[in-house]
Design goal:
With 359 residues, the chain is an alpha/beta fold. It has an 8-stranded parallel beta barrel with strand order 1-2-4-7-8-9-10-11. The chain has a two-stranded antiparallel sheet with strand order 5-6. The N and C termini lie far apart (43 Å).
Length: 359
């Protein structure tokens, strides 16, 4: 029987919050337990529900975490419903302070969330549950410690400067307030993916990697520490974000100029898979569903936005894995998951079976 070392991430998660453990009372996370974690393109859906919020996702390699946030008596509390809120579960205690401690304890010359790739940003997706105009000023204020350390990805009036934490607002987030400051912003919008569709091209797939590049794409996928999930940085270069050197920017489409969703104010394009792509009947997506996916992805990428679907099928597991496979193949940038081990520790790429017929 194998035993985990007291300094390993699994040991810390298993013993989190127990009496006489370092984590008692939301204590500091020992960064040495995360030294070998390889970041991958997964999003920890409803992250605050996990036994150890934030750290469980980072240990799995997820580069995006989600917190549902409520404004109550001038503080931001984290929970799925207002009735589930507790005094100790705040945005500061579960996310902002732990991120500061994690980065301060980084073992690399360039501080970052992931020691194996310190330049890899972590997306903090803040789901506004309270009306946006009320919650907005408190979120801006609570992000000050991260802002003052220069840790937040921001738009400087001409380009987006990538830093180790990218804050994205969703739910009741106020788009008008997000884009109000034209010279600086460090909170980006989660744009409605279903409104970004570009159906100007039908079959063949407009998002597929050209044949000449497939070998490189496959090599990246199979060299990833997580079979099936691409290394997290693969799409960053395609979307126009950079670390401050140079001024690479994606083109701004005519549609983006009309509705306002651009890489300057938005980071993600997200929507419900079940509502906008539709339930998957039988063993595979229909051609119509594939075209919907492709139009969503093409439209978002043309604006420089990353793609995320939520409300994915979760059962049977074979069908879930098939949908994951199709989403990654078609160009979705973040795989929204509840089952972290299933997404990051198993090989869910297409295998022969009823759920994985060739499309």
């Amino acid at each position: 029987m194998a035993y985990a070392s007291p300094t390993s991430a699994q040991w810390i998660i298993d013993h989190w919050g127990q009496a006489d453990e370092p984590s008692e009372g939301l204590a500091r996370w020992p960064t040495s337990g995360l030294r070998d974690v390889q970041p991958v393109a997964c999003h920890s859906h409803n992250d605050y529900w996990r036994s150890v919020p934030l750290y469980s996702a980072i240990q799995a390699g997820c580069t995006s975490v989600e917190a549902d946030v409520w404004l109550v008596e001038n503080d931001l509390y984290v929970g799925h419903t207002e009735s589930s809120l507790t005094p100790r579960r705040t945005l500061r205690s579960l996310y902002i302070q732990p991120l500061l401690e994690l980065i301060n304890g980084s073992q690399t010359p360039i501080p970052g969330v992931f020691d194996a790739d310190p330049s890899q940003p972590l997306v903090l997706l803040v789901d506004f549950k309270t009306p946006g105009a009320e919650l907005w000023p408190e979120l801006v204020a609570q992000l000050s410690p991260l802002r003052e350390r220069g840790l937040l990805t921001h738009f400087n009036g001409t380009t987006v400067i990538q830093r180790v934490i990218t804050v994205v607002a969703t739910g009741n987030a106020p788009f008008d307030l997000i884009r109000a400051n034209q010279s600086h912003r460090d909170i980006f919008y989660d744009a409605p993916l279903d409104q970004l569709s570009d159906s100007s091209q039908e079959w063949p797939n407009p998002n597929r990697v050209p044949e000449a590049e497939k070998a490189v794409s496959n090599a990246l996928s199979f060299s990833s520490p997580v079979p099936g999930l691409r290394p997290a940085h693969d799409h960053d270069l395609q979307l126009g974000y950079h670390n401050g050197a140079g001024s690479t920017k994606p083109a701004t489409s005519t549609a983006a100029l009309e509705d306002g969703y651009t890489w300057q104010n938005s980071y993600l394009g997200s929507t419900s898979f079940n509502r906008d792509v539709g339930p998957v009947w039988g063993s595979r997506l229909s051609q119509r569903q594939l075209q919907i996916l492709r139009s969503h992805i093409r439209g978002a990428h043309s604006r420089g936005l990353k793609v995320r679907y939520w409300d994915l099928p979760y059962w049977p597991v074979g069908l879930r894995n098939h949908v994951w496979h199709v989403l990654i193949r078609e160009g979705a940038d973040l795989l929204s998951v509840d089952d972290l081990p299933g997404a990051t520790r198993t090989d869910w790429r297409r295998k022969r079976g009823w759920w994985s017929k060739r499309i």
